Amino acid sequence: MNPFSTTYKNDISDQVLVKEILDGNKKSLNGLILRHQPFIYNIAWKMLGDPVKAEDLTQEALLKIISNLNSFQGKSSFRTWAYRIVRNHFLNDQKKPSNLFASNFEELGLLLDSSESIDLSEEEQENKKEEIREVRLQCLSGMLLCLSKEQRLIYLIGDIFGADHTIGSEIMEISKDNYRKKLSNARKDLHNFMLNKCGLVNKANPCRCNKKVTVALETGMIDARNLLFNRKEFSTFKAALEPDANYLVDESEDIYSELHRDHSFKTQYDKKNFLEIILESPNWRDRLNLN
User: For residue range 130-168, what is the model confidence (pLDDT) as tens digits?
Assistant: First the structure.
């Protein structure tokens, strides 16, 4: 269940799991991690644009949550308490985002304009549809990286995960008015760029994913044998979160938000399971009194 949803019903069971973990229950630790790890990981992935760095960032954030369980007093929901730790860790982390695209919208726009556009026939587009979607997902990821860290996080929580303004403001520890203003500014920055550059949002724009795929393949920007975002085992944010997500969009036209919700949502992990690291560490076993 999406922890950012207004219909989230796991706060009480989260608190029960925390109590059981502190009593040394390994199964409860596993349950708590498996419940929140996918959401924390997918925030990290979109914050950095790099799946490997995102795994490290996720493990670091989960370690902070686990190591501070003794300080959770139940004065707020576990969700709010835990994701404030995630927020602080992600905003203060010094890992560099993926340099695949650009660090700001102006630079990204210049890169897209200077990249050669090559028309494909309908047959070629059909044959390369997986690679074309990969180009689209990489470009959308690049757009998110042009936002500031705070903007990225607020946009992910508010528009992609579908948190309402109360939940979003609690996690960010700002007023609801301030949260709404910051979310609106992030939307406007993305919308303005996509309205002026993206052919998916504005048909008058010349930039088309299918016209960029040839150059992307030739330069190695995408690897047809090892797609980064577009894999069969991945879901999408929209598919993974509905009907839990409560998407709130102030503007009447939100096609750009829909495009970002179509981004990859990863639930399986290649690295050694985070829980195994905890359970194999004598230090952590002692600290949590795991039996």
Answer: 999 999 999 999 999 999 999 999 999 999 999 999 999
Residue 24's CB is within 10 A of a number of other CB atoms, namely 13
Which amino acid, one-letter code, is at 206?
P
Express each pLDDT in 242-261 by its tens digit: 878 888 766 545 788 889 99
CA gap 278, 289 in Å, rounded: 12
DSSP summary character for residue 157: I
User: Residue 280: CA atoms inside 13 Å, Cβ hemisphere, count?
Assistant: 6
Domains of the chain: 11-288 (1.20.140.160)
Contact 228, 134 (CB under 8 A): yes
Q: Which helix (DSSP H) or strand (DSSP E) does residue 235 occupy? A: strand 235-236
- On the 0-12 / 13-18 / 19+ scale of CB atoms within 10 A, 282 is exposed
Amino acid at 107: E
Rounded CA separation 248/239 (Å): 17
Nearest to 45 by CA among 244, 228, 167: 228
pTM: predicted TM-score of the whole model, two decimal places: 0.90
Instruction: Please give the span between the terminal C-alpha atoms of the chain, in angstroms, as a whole number.
Output: 28
Question: Is there a cis peptide before residue 243, judged by omega within 30 degrees of 0?
Answer: yes
Q: What is the DSSP letter of 44?
A: H
